[in-house]
C-alpha cells in the first residue's frame, strides 16, 4: 500500500467516511473533520506512518489533496 | 393525592445500568432478579483489595453512537444513550421541539476521569507529543451534559452538577427549579458515571470504604444487612424528561409520575463521613416534603441511598425513621446496579417513578438478615406490591451533600 492509499484508509476508517466522499478537492471540514479532529488524526498518522508531522501546515480548511500531498512529501524524505 | 402546585411531570425515562440497557430491562431485572449478574473484575482493578464493580456489558457504544463516540468519554456515552431513550419515551421529536426551551442537567461525581488517567499514562510512557488533543473536553464533568445537548440538539440552559454521590439527585432538583422559574419548558436531567480509574480505587480501598468480599463479589453489596462491609461501585446513567405540567398537558404527553419536591443540605461536618447525628439528611428530607407540600405520612416508599457501608445505612435509616416513622417501605436498589456514584440519584429517581407507576417496591437484593440497628421496614426477597401515592429518593454524598426528591403518582 502506498502512502496516499494508507492515509486514505486511515481517514475513512477513523471518521467513518464513505470512500467516495474522500475526493481531492474536498476540504476536510466538509468531511466534519474540525480542528480538534485534525489534530487527533495528525497523531494517528505520525504513529501509523512513523513520521513527524508537527510542522506540517495543515488545517481543517486544507483539502484532501493537500493533506495527501503534504503527508507523501514528509514520507518521501523520512 | 392532588399534585402540588409546584409539581412537574415526568414524561420520559431512560436508563443504562448493570441491570439492563434500557429503563424497562433495568426495572424488570431490579424487581425480579435474586442476584446481580454483571459484577466483574476489570483489568484496571487487578490485585486491589476491592477488585470488582458492576459493569454495563454487551452494549455496542461505537455502533450506537457513531462518530459521537470518539468525542465522548464513557460516562457521557452512557448519558447520551439514556437521554435518547428518555426523549423517545416522552414522545418528543428533537427535530420539531423548540430547542431553545430544552434544558439539560447531568450530574456526575468523577466525569471523564478515566480518560485523564489513560492519557496521563501516555504522557508518562511516551511523552508530551503523543498525548491526545482532547483530554480537556473529554475529562471535564460537563462532557455528558454537552454531549447530550449536541446529540439531541438541545439549545437551552445546560449544566453539569457535581456533589459527589448526590450529583444525580441535585441535577434533577436543579432542573425542577429551572422549570418552576420558567427558564425552560422541558428538562432532560439525571446522572451518569463510569469510573474504573485504578488510582481512585486504590485510594478508596485505602479509605476502607469499599467492600472487600472478594470471594463473593455478587453478594458484596448488601444494603442494610448485618454482614455488609462497604459499597461496590457501578457504572450507568439514569435520565428523566421533566416538563411543566401545562406543557405536558398541551401536547397530550403521557405522565409517568410527578416530581413534586426537592430538598438539599450539607452536613458541614467532614470530607467523607456523614454526620452520625444525621441532622443533614433529616433536614433535606423535611425540606423536600415541605417543597412538595406534603406530610411525612403521605410517603409510602423510599428508595434509599443504602450504600451498604456500615455507617451510611445506620445514619440514613435512623433519619428516615425520625421523619417518617416505620410506615414507608424502604429499599436500596444498589445491590442490582452497584453504587453508581453521581449517576445513582438519576437511576434511583427513575426507579422511584417506576415504582409509583407500577405500584411495586423493588426488593433489596442480598439482604438476608437485617441489621437490628436499622429501624425501617426494608423490602427483601421479592418485590412488594403496594398502594403508593408518594415516594422519596434520597442521596448522601462524600462532603456531606444530602439531597432528596419527592415524587407522586401520575
From TrEMBL, chain A:
Taxonomy, superkingdom: Bacteria
InterPro entries, per database record: ACP-like_sf, PP-bd_ACP
Domain named Carrier: residues: 1-75
Entry-linked Gene3D superfamilies: ACP-like
One matching Pfam family: PP-binding
Name of the protein in its database record: Acyl carrier protein
Source organism (scientific name): Streptomyces candidus
Phylogenetic placement of the source organism: Bacteria, Bacillati, Actinomycetota, Actinomycetes, Kitasatosporales
UniProtKB/TrEMBL annotation, chain B:
Keywords: Acyltransferase, Transferase
Record bears the keyword Acyltransferase: yes
SUPFAM superfamilies per record: Thiolase-like
Family: Belongs to the thiolase-like superfamily. Beta-ketoacyl-ACP synthases family.
SMART domains: PKS_KS (SM00825)
Family annotation (PROSITE patterns): KS3_1 (PS00606), KS3_2 (PS52004)
CDD domains: KAS_I_II
Name of this chain's protein: 3-oxoacyl-[acyl-carrier-protein] synthase II
Enzyme Commission number(s) from the entry: 2.3.1.179
InterPro entries: Beta-ketoacyl_synthase, Ketoacyl_synth_AS, Ketoacyl_synth_C, Ketoacyl_synth_N, PKS_Beta-ketoAc_synthase_dom, Thiolase-like
Gene source species: Streptomyces candidus
GO biological process assignments: fatty acid biosynthetic process
Ketosynthase family 3 (KS3) domain sequence ranges: 5-409
The organism's place on the tree of life at top rank: Bacteria
A Pfam entry, by short name: Ketoacyl-synt_C
Tagged with keyword Transferase: yes
High-level lineage: Bacteria, Bacillati, Actinomycetota, Actinomycetes, Kitasatosporales
Gene Ontology molecular function: any one: 3-oxoacyl-[acyl-carrier-protein] synthase activity
Amino acid at each position: 500500500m502506498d502512502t496516499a492509499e494508507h492515509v486514505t484508509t486511515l481517514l475513512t476508517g477513523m471518521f467513518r467516511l464513505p470512500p467516495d466522499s474522500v475526493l481531492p478537492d474536498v476540504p476536510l471540514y466538509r468531511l466534519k473533520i474540525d480542528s480538534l479532529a485534525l489534530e487527533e488524526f495528525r497523531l494517528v498518522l505520525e504513529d501509523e506512518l512513523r513520521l513527524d508531522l508537527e510542522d506540517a501546515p495543515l488545517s481543517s480548511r486544507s483539502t484532501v489533496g493537500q493533506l495527501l500531498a503534504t503527508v507523501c512529501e514528509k514520507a518521501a524524505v523520512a | 393525592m392532588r399534585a402540588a402546585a409546584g409539581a412537574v411531570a415526568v414524561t420520559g425515562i431512560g436508563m443504562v445500568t448493570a441491570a439492563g440497557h434500557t429503563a424497562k430491562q433495568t426495572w424488570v431485572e431490579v424487581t425480579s432478579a435474586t442476584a446481580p449478574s454483571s459484577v466483574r473484575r476489570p483489568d484496571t482493578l487487578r490485585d486491589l483489595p476491592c477488585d470488582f464493580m458492576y459493569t454495563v456489558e454487551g452494549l455496542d457504544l461505537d455502533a450506537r453512537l457513531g462518530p459521537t463516540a470518539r468525542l465522548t468519554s464513557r460516562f457521557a456515552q452512557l448519558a447520551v444513550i439514556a437521554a435518547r431513550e428518555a426523549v423517545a419515551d416522552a414522545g418528543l421529536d428533537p427535530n420539531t421541539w423548540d430547542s431553545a426551551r430544552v434544558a439539560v442537567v447531568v450530574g456526575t461525581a468523577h466525569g471523564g476521569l478515566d480518560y485523564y488517567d489513560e492519557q496521563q499514562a501516555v504522557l508518562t510512557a511516551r511523552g508530551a507529543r503523543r498525548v491526545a488533543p482532547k483530554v480537556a473536553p473529554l475529562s471535564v464533568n460537563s462532557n455528558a451534559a454537552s454531549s447530550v445537548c449536541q446529540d439531541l440538539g438541545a439549545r437551552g440552559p445546560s449544566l453539569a452538577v457535581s456533589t459527589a454521590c448526590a450529583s444525580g439527585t441535585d441535577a434533577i432538583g436543579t432542573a425542577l427549579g429551572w422549570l418552576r422559574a420558567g427558564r425552560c419548558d422541558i428538562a432532560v436531567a439525571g446522572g451518569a458515571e463510569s469510573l474504573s480509574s485504578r488510582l481512585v480505587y486504590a485510594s478508596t480501598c485505602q479509605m476502607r470504604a469499599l467492600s472487600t468480599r472478594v470471594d463473593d463479589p455478587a453478594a458484596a453489596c448488601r444494603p442494610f444487612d448485618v454482614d455488609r462491609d462497604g459499597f461496590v461501585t457501578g457504572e450507568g446513567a439514569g435520565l428523566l424528561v421533566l416538563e411543566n405540567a401545562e406543557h405536558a398537558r398541551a401536547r397530550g404527553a403521557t405522565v409517568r409520575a410527578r416530581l413534586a419536591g426537592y430538598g438539599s443540605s450539607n452536613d458541614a461536618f467532614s470530607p467523607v463521613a456523614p454526620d452520625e447525628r444525621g441532622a443533614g439528611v433529616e433536614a433535606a428530607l423535611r425540606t423536600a416534603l415541605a417543597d412538595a407540600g406534603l406530610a411525612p405520612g403521605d410517603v409510602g416508599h423510599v428508595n434509599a441511598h443504602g450504600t451498604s457501608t456500615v455507617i451510611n445505612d445506620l445514619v440514613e435509616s435512623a433519619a428516615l425513621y425520625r421523619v417518617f416513622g416505620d410506615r414507608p417501605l424502604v429499599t436500596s436498589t444498589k445491590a442490582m446496579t452497584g453504587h453508581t456514584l453521581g449517576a445513582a440519584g438519576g437511576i434511583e429517581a427513575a426507579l422511584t417513578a417506576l415504582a409509583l407507576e407500577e405500584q411495586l417496591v423493588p426488593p433489596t437484593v442480598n439482604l438476608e438478615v437485617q441489621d437490628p440497628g436499622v429501624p425501617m421496614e426494608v423490602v427483601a426477597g421479592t418485590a412488594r406490591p403496594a398502594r403508593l401515592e408518594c415516594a422519596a429518593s434520597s442521596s448522601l454524598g462524600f462532603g456531606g451533600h444530602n439531597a432528596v426528591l419527592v415524587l407522586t403518582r401520575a
